Every structure is written in structure tokens, then in C-alpha cells.
Amino acid sequence: RTAQSPRELLCELKDQARLRTLDGSEQPFSSLGWARLVPRLALEKLYRQGGQRGFRSCAVVSSAGAILHSGLGKEIDSHDAVMRFNTAPTEGYERDVGKKTTIRVINSQILANPKHRFNTSSLYKNVTLVAWDPAPYAVNLHKWYANPDYNLFSPYVEHRRLHPTQPFYVLHPKYLWHLWDVIQGNTQETIQPNPPSSGFIGILLMMALCEEVHVYEYIPSLRQTDLCHYHEQYYDAACTLGAYHPLLYEKSLVQRINTGPERDLKKKGRVTLPGFSTVNC
Ligand code: NCC
Predict the structure, then answer these.
(1) Would residue 170 count as lying in a domain?
(2) Does residue 138 lie within any of the structural domains?
(3) What are the tens digits of pLDDT across the range 118-130?
């Protein structure tokens, strides 16, 4: 069941990747009062309240070193919404990555590891936050709550209490595994059941919120380099090609649904994807 047309693949993603965050309706979260803890407005509705129509055009900025010296900052900031990941900064890198951040997707290490200064760093203020943690494939919310990969639950609760007006969501682990199922279902090789990267998760999330999504330096441009992140002097080709995450497979999937021209990919590392609201299945 591989070699689907780009359109069939898009429809499978649209169907499988229905945005889902913890809403406090399931145990153990319901007993813990999470229905009142999570933001009142669901993430899908956040940018559609009061006559807003969601975002027209969005940018997803990967943290890859190859975006250095791209000069893409102005173009990135021209989109209605900009997504960034984990600890990726804008300060000092505005020329290449822009300065606007609308949504930041963070893995559970960011909340759990004090070195990331989640409570005090300005990276995590004045933006919508979306956190995730990889529960085992056969999702059992009780077991996950008792034993997450990194404990994101207490920092999340504390942050919600301190900053109740900041939109901050936790992705439902089933959402992650539905994405993984689509990756495996469209790949010849048998993939390790490790969750998709924050990059892939973010791209699919933006496809649910935007009419058009432009992804930068996720599929490498001609600037491809072993420099892991644009903001760190650390070299490892696995950052781009994958070790723990099924990165290579995610990227080939995204490449298959790219509607932008080849020269955008080569020169800007830019892929253009339709938002789900514009895809009729
Ligand atoms: O490196 P990371 O990812 O924060 O990067 C965010 C997303 O950008 C894309 N990327 C990054 C570097 C690169 N050379 N090429 C890329 O395509 C990927 O899509 C990536 O997801 C993560 O996915 O959450 C990850 O987080 C880091 C780390 O936890 C955070 O940066 C916080 O320090 C992981 N590294 C380690 O755990 C050591 C990384 O594996 C995945």
C-alpha cells in the first residue's frame, strides 16, 4: 500500500492527522481537573474566534544549520504566522530566520530539564506553546502519566497556574502515533516505533491551521551542512538525516506533497504545502 499519488497521501494525512490535544476529558486527566486547567479554547479554534478565518500563509522554520546565511528572515516574517522549535532563538539571527514567532513546538525535555530555563527564558513568552512527549506506541494514558519520557506534567500544571492566559497545549500521544502510522504506511522499510520529529509534528499542525504552509530548511537546500543547529557550534549529520526520529522517511513524505518549484527547494530549502482546509477529499 505504497506509491500513493500526492493527492491520496494528502487525503490520508488530512484524515489521520486530525489535530488533538489533551482536553482533560480522559482519565487520569479528568480526575486531576485538567478540563479546567487546559486553555478554554481548543487550538483549532484559537485563531478562528471573532470572525478570524485562521491563517492564510504560514512559515515553519526548522532549526537546521543550513538556514545560516540564507537571508530568509524578511520572507519568513512576511507570513501570517511563524512556527519555531524547542530552543531555536531569533535574537542575533534575524537576517536568516526572522524575528516573528507565533507558535513554538517544544518536546518534553524543554519542560523537564532545568538547563532550558523554561520558566524564565523569553523564548517561551508571548507565543502559543505546544508540548509533546512520546508515550509508548500502545498509548495508555495512566501509564504515560505515571512514567513519561521526560516529566512534562508538573511543569505544565505549574505554568498554566502562573500564566493562565497564555495558550499552552499538550498534544495527545495518539496524534503523534497517527502521524507515525502514515509515515510507516507509506514507507517500504520497517521503521522503529519512535515518534516523528518536532519538525514533522509542527508541519502537520500548521497544515491544520493555515491555508498554505511554507517550510524552511527541513528538506535541505544547497546550503546543506553537518552543522546541527543554526545557533550552536555542534556538528552531526544525524540532526538532518535522523537517528532516533524517522527523519529521513518524514522528509521524503513531505517532499512527495511539495507543490513548490524545485528552485525554491535548492535555493531556499523551501517546500510549499496546501493547508487541509483547501484539500477536498
Ligand atoms: O534539534 P531539534 O529537534 O530541536 O530541531 C527541531 C526540528 O528541526 C528539524 N531539523 C533540525 C536540525 C537539522 N539539522 N535538521 C532538521 O531538519 C527537525 O525536524 C527537528 O525536529 C525534536 O525533534 O524535538 C529535536 O529536539 C532535540 C532536542 O531535544 C531539543 O533541541 C532541545 O535541546 C533532539 N536532540 C536531542 O535530544 C539531543 C533532536 O533529536 C530532535
Answers:
(1) yes
(2) yes
(3) 999 999 999 999 9
- Kindly give the number of the ligand 1 atom that is closest to the alpha carbon of 247: 19
Q: Are 78 and 58 in contact (CB under 8 A)?
A: no
Q: What is the pLDDT of residues 170-213, one digit of tens each?
A: 999 999 999 999 999 999 999 999 999 999 999 999 999 999 99
Kindly state the cell numbers that stand for 190.
Answer: 520497517
Among candidate residues 8, 49, 52, 42, the one with its CA nearest the CA of residue 22? 42
Asked whether 161 and 154 are in contact (CB, 8 A), the reply is no
Query: Domain limits at 109?
Result: 6-278
- Asked if residues 211 and 275 have their Cβ atoms less than 8 Å apart, the reply is yes
Domain containing residue 212: CATH number: 3.90.1480.20
Domains of the chain: total: 1
Q: Is the CB of 273 under 6 A from ligand 1?
A: no
Between CA 134 and CA 74 the distance in angstroms is 34
Q: Does 1 fall in a domain?
A: no
Report which of 134, 102, 109, 199 is spatially closest to residue 118, judged by C-alpha positions: 109
Residue 84 Cα, ligand 1 centroid: separation in angstroms? 11
258 burial level (CB within 10 Å; 0-12, 13-18, 19+): middle
Over residues 30-55, the mean pLDDT reads 93
Residue ID of nearest Cα to ligand 1 atom 20 = 199
Rounded to an integer, what distance in angstroms lies between the CA atom of residue 45 and that of residue 30? 21
Give buried/exposed letters for 71-80 (b at 16+ CB in 10 A, else e): ebbeebbebb
